[in-house]
What we know:
CATH superfamily of the largest domain: NAD(P)-binding Rossmann-like Domain
Number of strands: 12
Helix content: 25-40%
Structural class: alpha/beta
Strand content: 15-25%
Shape: elongated
CATH class of the largest domain: Alpha Beta
Amino acid sequence: MNGRILLLGGVTEALAIARRLGPEHVYSLAGIGRVPRDLACQVRVGGYGGAEGLAEYLREAGIGLLIDATHPYAAQISRNAASAAAAVGIPCWTLRRPVWQAQPDDDWREIENWAGLLQALAPFQRPLFTLGREPLQHLDEIPAHQFWTLRALEACPGNERCEVIGARGPFLLEDERALFERGRFDVLVSKNSGSTATEPKLVVARERGVPVLVLKRPELPRVDREFGSVEGLLGALEI
């Protein structure tokens, strides 16, 4: 182990790492979602003010190892982490889930950005968005022939052509089947998060022959060590 650890959370697996950390280490959360209360390590909630602010915190807190376990689509945070660790001269490790892989019966269409997504959505009528809160910024762009359903961590207002569902994974296969049946979705919009907790929606889309518009993962920075599993990272920490 490399001294005091700062663990940047954002994926479910980060909590499994945090549960193994002692009281001298810090588990950092952006503040979205529930904050665990049963950890031995310290918990910090909130941002740092970019790469420079994070570097300042690393120095002041005496951090010897930075672990980036943020969401694979939180590219700016990952870039800040790599930059701050390099500026301070400490190693940066990352936990990155392997991407989901399309199966033979899947109809996946990779999308680069929001403009491409709107174009790809044009033929459909009832999309299910599982991108988090991002689509809420585009409710005034819903075409007249479409009704959107959005699933996010917290329920919030939609409009006359958009329903917002508040729900947290893990999601059960039977519940996802019921949701698709009730919503009559003709297309699924998803990030390629690689999470087993949210993968059942892809199984249901495959069963029903529903196309999946997959938002492409952003490019992430190179770091000192990259792990594809919690077990591998914990083994390297020797805790």
